[in-house]
């Protein structure tokens, strides 16, 4: 999951959800409203009838509300080879109202692009080390600064980081999202705006390979989300 982070506390991410199959967590997501979850397209190559969503709990294994999924819609331009346009919308079979433990994420305006150097926070139930085989039960979070798209393209190879993506992490490594965090949120720390979802990377928390996120403010992603939420 989260590498180099700490335990999240109640209220940090009231909109985060655990996506589960056969009772096992495999990706994260964010509640946009009572019936809608935003997650990664690469987490969504799956039948809606085979998955459930747990909301309103810091634990991936208990508490909160567990609901079924009625439909899954992947961005029509999603490319599995490049991981571009890596977003999907899940519709819930049962609505999840706001409560003391559940809230809905706030999306940025279309066109908004996270600024280099600004600290953001990502969270999830993924592994705490690259290649780790066990997932933490309790939600974890980590603060990471935005890396400019130009610098990230230098890290990954020119053209790898499209305008539908942005990067965040430390040049020296050590803090990152990891396997099992995919689809979960990254928010601007000061405003809590849901500026992205965990998408891909080279390993986890490696030096010169920051985490890559789908950019919810990109016009092509924002319009898809707005039309389907």
Automatic annotation (TrEMBL):
MF term (GO), any: serine-type endopeptidase activity
Pfam families: Trypsin
Listed GO biological process terms: proteolysis
Annotated TM spans: none
Residue span(s) of domain Peptidase S1: 2-229
InterPro entries the UniProt entry points to: Peptidase_S1_PA, Peptidase_S1_PA_chymotrypsin, Peptidase_S1A, Trypsin_dom, TRYPSIN_HIS, TRYPSIN_SER
Organism superkingdom: Eukaryota
UniProt xrefs under PROSITE patterns: TRYPSIN_DOM (PS50240), TRYPSIN_HIS (PS00134), TRYPSIN_SER (PS00135)
Entries under SMART domains matching the protein: Tryp_SPc
Keyword terms of this UniProt record: Disulfide bond, Hydrolase, Protease, Serine protease
This protein's name: Trypsin-domain-containing protein
Organism this protein belongs to: Pseudovirgaria hyperparasitica
